Model the fold of this input.
Amino acid sequence: MWEGVLQWRQIPAFQPLGCGNSGSTAQPSSRNVGLGSFASLLLDKEEVDKKKGKQSAMFSPPCFPSAEQLRKHPLALLSFVPKDVVLFCAGALAGAAAKTVTAPLDRIKLLMQTHGLRAAEVTTTKGIGFLEALTMIGKEDGVKGYWKGNLPQVIRIIPYSAVQLFSYEVYKKLLKGKDEQLSVAGRLIAGACAGMTSTLVTYPLDVLRLRLAVDASHKTMAQAVLNMLESEGIASFYCGLGPSLLSVAPYIAINFCIFDLVKKSLPAKYQNQPESSLATALASAALATLMCYPLDTVRRQMQMKDSPYKSVLEAFPGICSHKQVLWHVMGLLGCIEVFFQML
Done:
């Protein structure tokens, strides 16, 4: 922390503004300070120590703290970490924690989305309910089973966030106009492109997460990777990439538009309150998830091993004709998951 000495000094022939017959200026209360004095803040370390009559143990920001100071205050090292790095790490940790907390809901959702394909050869049942999926996981894998496949999801958070933040800044610079301003449409396009870029880079981890969650033969992440490479090749890590990229742009656009419209419709006194922003963000994210959920179901079914669907155009009529998914139930579960993640 900086320390200083406040001194009053005289300047010859110095007349402050506002003094005279027409006005008055508030003067310092010290009796040694008269008209023409001004305040100076002394920040020189040697002069401060001389005035105080003792040696100071403080250090200034350009200097690295000593070992003794770090031993007493180890958190002082954080002051040397750039703010952007701190925010990124905090965001990554928060995202990993949110994914871990909601992992049971996510696995139940994945089982409900893909049950039709997994059970097609052994039973005529085309759908599975929430309670059925919940019970099935407990019986087959125990309590740990609710977090099966969460590791690649947590690992995916760090590169996904990094690529998204970096690419968003790049796209914003490319889309800025002559006046260096970015329009609303430009922000939507930049956000959509950043989302698609980060999805493309981290997509293999998303496929790996699904295979671990729905395939009982895969016990570890390494085993799942080797099995996919041996039986299906490297292309299996990009199954369903099309609908994944297609869902990013409308999700961001819908989320942004709903958030903006809802916030503007609130009374002025509530618009800038944190509670209102949180509620608006939850509502916009939930509605965007509900509206874009069919593409997410298509993506999950295309990620399955030996999936009969090779394109989005094949998947939509196939899923609807066999009634493999209850859209509204799936969408509701996805909204609940979003709610807990944002909290």
Q: What stands out?
A: The two ends are 35 Å apart (CA to CA). The first strand starts at residue 5 and ends at 10. DSSP finds 13 helices and two strands in the chain.
